[in-house]
Design a protein that fits this description.
Elements (H helix, E strand, L loop, with lengths): L7 E5 L3 H18 L23 E7 L10 E9 H7 L8 E2 L1 H4 L5 E9 L7 H17 L3 E9 L7 H11 L8 E2 L17 H6 L3 H8 L3 E2 L4 E3 L4 E9 L5 H7 L6
Parallel strand pairs: 5-6
Antiparallel strand pairs: 1-2, 2-3, 3-5, 4-7, 6-10, 8-10, 9-10
Length: 259
């Protein structure tokens, strides 16, 4: 339950305890709510973690007004990996699912987003804008040019998702210089219904709020989806080029950063 008057703190996790709080939130969302799994998930401690966690920056949103243990006061999280960090560990997280060659060879500064989640009571409100403002500040500080990351539909029934996947492919496919593609061994086509046969209103209603938010900011989707049975999701790769954002989109994204 969200507190009546949230007292938010937004910061990068700096201690093992803050990282564990981020992993606890991820467990509550990805494991308990969405039915996911993973090789390093700690069910006893209720932590969703993986081998990449030590290499990422973790942007956490804390509701200080909650009357709960500190580990449960983190209500939102983003996991962030710059290209310099990815080179140190040999890959981006998303490369297991997507061929990122077109981005990696662009010479531009990249930032991978992942494990983005909020507790249900905080979705669609001020908490998301706090996270966006923090992300925008991080992008500005590190001079990031292209953001990308996997976003998910719940469930793995492709037929049930044919409408929204087809709409994303038809209307929001990334231009060639940003068009990442699902790894060949796992490629799931998204153009499942001809564009003139898509029920656009019904399809867009089925698109998760986070994906719609990135589309409003001028984001695109890569080519092909990835069926992630471990996390019980169908994934698409979102790509956002800061240079392609128009003035209105930038104003939404950077609200609160004016000096």
């Amino acid at each position: 339950m969200a507190s009546q008057d949230p007292d938010f703190t937004l910061k990068l996790a700096e201690t093992p305890e803050e990282l564990m709080a981020a992993q606890r939130l991820r467990y509550r969302v990805f494991i308990e709510e969405l039915g996911g799994a993973g090789a390093l998930v700690d069910h006893e401690a209720r932590l969703e973690k993986d081998r990449f966690d030590p290499h990422f920056d973790h942007l956490i949103l804390i509701d200080n007004a909650l009357d709960v243990p500190e580990i449960d006061r983190v209500v939102g999280v983003y996991r962030l990996l710059q290209d310099t960090q990815a080179r140190e560990i040999g890959q981006f997280y998303g490369e297991d699912e997507y061929d990122l060659t077109v981005l990696k060879e662009s010479g531009r500064k990249l930032l991978e987003l992942g494990r983005s989640c909020l507790l249900p009571d905080y979705r669609g409100g001020a908490a998301m804008f706090h996270l966006w403002n923090g992300l925008a500040a991080y992008v500005f500080e590190h001079e990031i040019e292209v953001l990308f990351g996997v976003a998910s539909f719940h469930g793995t029934d492709i037929e049930a998702l044919a409408g929204p996947l087809s709409l994303l492919h038809a209307r929001h496919l990334a231009p060639e210089d940003l068009r990442v593609r699902t790894q060949a061994a796992h490629f799931q086509p998204m153009d499942l219904i001809p564009e003139d046969q898509i029920d656009r209103r019904k399809a867009m209603l089925a698109v998760p709020a986070l994906i719609k938010a990135y589309l409003r900011l001028g984001g695109f989707v890569g080519e092909g989806a990835y069926v992630d049975h471990a996390f019980n999701t169908v994934d698409v790769c979102l790509v956002m080029d800061t240079e392609r954002m128009n003035a209105k989109q930038k104003a939404i994204y950077t609200k609160g950063l004016e000096t």
